[in-house]
Design brief:
This protein has 128 residues and is an alpha+beta fold. The protein is built from two helices and four strands. The longest helix has 52 residues.
């Protein structure tokens, strides 16, 4: 008489159900994660730009105008003394604002992933 083998493991149906459930979870998880990353990158840009405002206000108190026409971090650091907390490849530029007379200014920050923010100060509004 032949003995029965106690087979252990997963059936093909169980594996297919598991893969299907994981696929459905990934469909929702990956876009949510990408959105989270983008939101975090934007928060870093906004935070860095907002810290620059303190240095610009100091410059304004000493000179009567804001420092504008600053095309990179080196120029910004030389003019107002601001530098980012970390060198993460973000590009910064300070340009004259809508008034055109250095009584306001625009700060543009460009993340290496392509995210760009522009804020007009001292109003703290997004650039048009």
């Amino acid at each position: 008489m032949q003995g029965r083998h106690n087979a252990s493991g997963f059936t093909m149906i169980e594996l297919m159900v598991t893969v299907t459930i994981l696929s459905i979870l990934l469909v929702f998880a990956v876009p949510a994660y990408q959105s989270y990353i983008e939101t975090t990158e934007e928060a870093v840009l906004v935070n860095n730009v907002n810290t620059m405002e303190v240095f610009q206000e100091d410059f304004f108190l000493r000179n009567g105008t804001y420092a504008v026409g600053l095309a990179n971090i080196a120029a910004i650091e030389t003019a107002i003394g601001w530098e980012p907390q970390s060198d993460d490849g973000i590009l910064y530029a300070v340009a004259d604002g809508p008034s055109g007379d250095a009584s306001d200014y625009n700060v543009t920050a460009t993340h290496p992933d392509g995210l760009v923010i522009c804020i007009t100060f001292p109003e703290k509004t997004r650039c048009p």
